């Protein structure tokens, strides 16, 4: 082989390792996908879709009921049903997708396919007008499923573009970019919905804002699609048949092989508990703020934006702390803060804006950091060549059990009639997650997976 054919050699024949430069180029491109998809998460899934689709469904309701797949439901319950349906469907679809992604060289193409398909579904919501809530429902379900599929591929790329010792930094920076991008577009869209420029009605402003999130998601996905490298499959289990049959064969082999990675499984269970607690706090915070503490929509909007932008700095800070103390210790510290947050929420005074905003700052600090480090920490515990498969389990199990926290919140409220004990009850998820995480032997898990043990774990 000639020197010029080897990317690790200079033209003069001397050895020049170009891999760090390639990794840096890929990392910069990879960050943009978190920036891209967070617009959908914040503007559509978190803030605007639910009140918009409820309003549309109320027009179509007969005796305050609509028919969803033959089931009579109240319009106010429609967003919850749609999210639940898409979540359960994702839990079944993601594992075979992971096996397919591991066998695919063009992972950036697969990432872009799911992103652009998801953005197309999201754009359908723009056409949900009058009493046609069904097209909005299809848009959200398709968008959510494609978002989960793209997250599997995106997370699986993380171990391919970063070495073990640098993974926490890279993952945290990606999360930070996501919060910044999602926060910027959300601020613009909330201004549009509030100010109503160009004579827009509130409904039209919401439609335009959600369409902008779909366009944002699709447009910024071009950056990773064009600039990420290809990653040829490694350690692929030989299987007969076409790519789909091979993927299912590999998935079956991986399911049998899971028992060989007990440390990764223990962490997964820990993650399911504490992440469910995090997601439930986020999902219920608006309800808690409005129904229990008596805050107006304006205060809730300010708090949502505050959390978004504080989370940008929180994710970066957690990445730096992990470099010094190790991801596991920093995640555990974050869970202690989460327990303090739900405890403080129990005693938060009504209609006192400053304490509520202070709680939002605390949430922002630990929100992005704990999730970003969970992603990078898990990547150390999984074998090379099966990154997408294991991240598909990571996301599928998350979706399959994500109703535990909301069920707990709902049941405690039903029995007590107050949201204060309901929010405090979530402390159990952080405590159980932390106790299980304490049992994770990081060094052993990394060695079992065949990865290099970083100097700081």
TrEMBL record:
**Membrane topology of this protein:** Multi-pass membrane protein
Name the source's superkingdom: Bacteria
Instruction: Spell out where the chain crosses the membrane.
Output: 32-54, 78-97, 109-127, 133-153, 174-200, 206-226, 299-318, 330-348, 354-378, 399-416, 422-440
**Keywords for this protein:** Membrane, Transmembrane, Transmembrane helix, Transport
Q: Does the keyword Membrane apply?
A: yes
Residues in Major facilitator superfamily (MFS) profile domain copies: 263-457
> Which compartments does it reside in?
Cell membrane
Asked if the keyword Lyase belongs to this entry, the reply reads no
**Protein name (database record):** MFS transporter
User: Per the UniProt entry, what species is this protein from, by scientific name?
Assistant: Nocardioides bigeumensis
């Amino acid at each position: 082989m000639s020197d010029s054919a080897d990317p690790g050699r200079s033209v003069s024949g001397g050895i020049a390792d170009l891999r760090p430069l390639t990794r840096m180029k890929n990392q910069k491109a990879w960050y943009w996908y978190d920036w891209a998809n967070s617009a959908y998460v914040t503007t559509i899934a978190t803030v605007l879709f639910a009140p918009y689709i409820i309003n549309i469904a109320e027009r179509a309701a007969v005796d305050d009921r609509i028919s969803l797949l033959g089931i009579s439901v109240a319009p106010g319950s429609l967003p919850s049903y749609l999210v639940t349906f898409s979540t359960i469907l994702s839990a079944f679809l993601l594992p075979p997708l992971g096996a397919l992604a591991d066998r695919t060289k063009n992972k950036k193409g697969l990432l872009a396919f799911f992103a652009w398909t998801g953005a197309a579904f999201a754009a359908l919501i723009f056409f949900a007008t009058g009493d046609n809530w069904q097209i909005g429902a299809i848009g959200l379900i398709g968008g959510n499923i494609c978002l989960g599929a793209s997250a599997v591929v995106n997370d699986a790329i993380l171990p391919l573009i970063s070495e073990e010792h640098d993974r926490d930094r890279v993952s945290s920076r990606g999360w930070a970019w996501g919060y910044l991008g999602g926060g910027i577009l959300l601020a613009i869209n909330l201004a549009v919905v509030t100010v109503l420029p160009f004579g827009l009605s509130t409904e039209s402003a919401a439609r335009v804002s959600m369409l902008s999130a779909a366009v944002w998601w699709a447009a910024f996905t071009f950056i990773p699609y064009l600039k990420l490298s290809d990653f040829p499959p490694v350690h692929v289990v030989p299987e007969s048949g076409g790519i789909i049959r091979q993927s299912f064969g590999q998935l079956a082999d991986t399911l049998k092989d899971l028992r060989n990675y007990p440390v990764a499984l223990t962490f997964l269970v820990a993650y399911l508990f504490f992440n469910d607690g995090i997601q439930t706090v986020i999902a219920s915070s608006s309800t808690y703020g409005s129904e229990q503490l008596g805050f107006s929509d304006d205060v809730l909007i300010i708090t949502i934006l505050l959390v978004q932008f504080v989370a940008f700095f929180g994710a970066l800070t957690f990445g730096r702390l992990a470099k010094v103390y190790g991801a596991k210790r920093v995640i555990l510290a974050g869970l202690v803060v989460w327990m303090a947050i739900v405890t403080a929420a129990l005693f938060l005074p009504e209609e006192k804006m400053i304490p509520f905003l202070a709680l939002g700052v605390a949430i922002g600090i630990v929100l992005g950091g704990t999730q970003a480090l969970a992603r990078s920490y898990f990547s150390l515990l999984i074998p090379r060549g099966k990154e997408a498969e294991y991240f598909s389990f990571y996301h599928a199990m998350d979706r399959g059990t994500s109703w535990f926290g909301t069920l707990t919140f709902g049941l405690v409220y039903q029995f007590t009639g107050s949201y204060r004990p309901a929010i405090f009850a979530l402390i159990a998820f952080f405590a159980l997650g932390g106790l299980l995480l304490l049992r994770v032997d990081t060094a052993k898990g990394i060695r079992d997976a065949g990865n290099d043990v970083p100097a700081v774990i």
